[in-house]
Amino acid sequence: MEYELLKKTLVRLRRDELEKTLKKWSKLSKHHPAWGCLEGLDLSTTKIQLLPQLYKRLSKIQPHHAGELDLLYMLQHSSSKTWTVWLSTELHGSEGYAETPQAFRRRLKTALESYFMLDIQVMEHQKALWVRIYIHEDTKYQANNTVYAVYYPHSPVLILTAIKAANREYIIQAFSNTLSAGELEEQMLSGHCLSSLAQLSLNKYSQGYFSHYRLGQVDINALARGEKRKRKIEEEEEVLDDRITYENIKDKQRSKKILQDTFGSNEQPSLERLEYKMETNFRGGNCAPHFAKSKEPFRCRVKFEGRNVLEGIKNLGKAGYATLPLPAHLARVPSLAKNTIILGNKKSKRQ
Questions:
Q1: What residues contact residue 144 under an 8 Å CB cut-off, 6+ apart?
Q2: Cα–Cα distance measured from residue 249 to residue 7, given in angstroms and rounded to the nearest whole number
Q3: Cα–Cα dist 125/152, whole Å
Q4: What's this model's pTM, rounded to 2 decimal places?
Q5: pLDDT in the model for residue 351
Q6: Among residues 304, 302, 299, 303, which one has the least CA distance to residue 344?
Q7: DSSP label at 80?
Q8: What's the rounded Cα separation, in Å, for the pair 227 and 220?
Q9: In whole angstroms, what is the distance from residue 140 CA to residue 6 CA?
Q10: 208-344 maps to which CATH number?
Q11: d(Cα 20, Cα 69) in Å, to the nearest integer?
Q12: Do 345 and 281 touch, CB atoms closer than 8 A?
């Protein structure tokens, strides 16, 4: 099985990543007797031809060695998976964070080994703990038995890939116990860009215009009184042609200010999907009276998809294709930290 996983990982690595990744692999580290096995290998050959040569030089390779290389690949290609954000209901002080990846691995393995035969690898990368869990159910490697997770220490944020339905409850409970986190709740926030999901969930209240303060792009404190806020950021000035008369210049300036106050000048976090599920009473009784009489909620779904939906909405307003100011359910998306939003009837004060 380890040979199959090793082959799968090496084939997926790009040519310019191959040598650098192999040198980070603990099986080939300077502190391991196998160090130096890269010397004499012709890395210009095809990866399929390189694999048998490399495998012969690596003595006693174990499944956890191949799993570690797979995790190294995932550090560089996290966008190959769909990730979902989970939040803990509570964290008990600093108990939610083991000081080292090794300690975190031991706690997580202890929570899971009563239920499964498994391999767990944990690495620290960009101030987060990256986890790979593989559950053995057969002698052959099964990709859907692999779960990847990213945990940001001292925060309630845990980001996971898809989990097999039969294993889901055990794995979520194991993470909850490891983090001393009470319950873990799945959020309606998912996508391929892990860094954007982390940004939206960790910095929920400093998106849009307030991102300037988080990124240190203004001169003074937002709470300071008396002085007018000065911006360090230089906004792009639109070059106007003197030969052309712009009749809607005031409208363009107004739109620019609204978008600046709503989204700020920084590029928006990358979300590939934004979905609205509507469960409201039907309000078009004049057009369709038979719908208006129904007591059941009128259900429909609207989905936006693209490379960066938030940036796309901003550009629609900039180009004049969207009416400004944007409705709250569009303007507040970055601060909601959701890309699946359910719109329902407003509840009365008596309810």
A1: 162, 164
A2: 60
A3: 10
A4: 0.84
A5: 44
A6: 299
A7: G
A8: 9
A9: 13
A10: 3.10.20.720
A11: 12
A12: yes
Question: How far is the first Cα of the chain from the last one, in angstroms, to the nearest whole number?
Answer: 58
Write out the residue limits of the CATH 3.60.90.10 domain(s) in the chain: 80-202
Residue type, 284: G
305, 339 contact by CB (below 8 A): no
Check residue 186 and report its DSSP letter: E
Which residue bears the tokens 């509507």?
A: 278
Tell me which DSSP letter residue 299 carries: E
The structural architecture, per CATH, of the domain 80-202 is: 4-Layer Sandwich (3.60)
pLDDT in tens, the chain (351 residues): 677 888 888 889 888 888 888 888 877 665 555 545 566 666 777 777 777 777 776 666 788 888 999 999 999 999 999 999 999 987 654 444 556 899 999 999 999 999 999 999 999 999 999 999 999 988 788 889 999 999 999 899 999 999 999 999 999 999 999 988 889 999 999 999 999 999 999 887 777 666 766 666 666 655 555 554 444 444 555 666 778 777 788 888 898 899 988 888 888 899 999 999 988 888 777 777 777 777 788 888 999 999 999 999 999 998 889 989 998 888 888 888 899 998 887 775 544
Intervals of CATH 3.10.20.720 along the chain: 208-344
Distance from C-alpha of 263 to C-alpha of 332, rounded to nearest angstrom: 9
Please provide residue 58's backbone torsions phi and psi, each rounded to the nearest 5 degrees.
-95, 110
Long-range contacts from 89-96, C-beta under 8 angstroms, 24+ separation = 89/156, 89/181, 89/182, 89/183, 89/184, 89/185, 90/181, 90/182, 91/154, 91/156, 91/179, 91/180, 91/181, 91/182, 92/180, 94/154, 95/180, 96/153, 96/154, 96/179, 96/180, 96/181
User: Which stretches of 25-130 are DSSP H helices?
Assistant: 47-57, 63-76, 101-112
Cis peptide before 325 (omega within 30 of 0): yes
What is the reported pLDDT for 320?
86
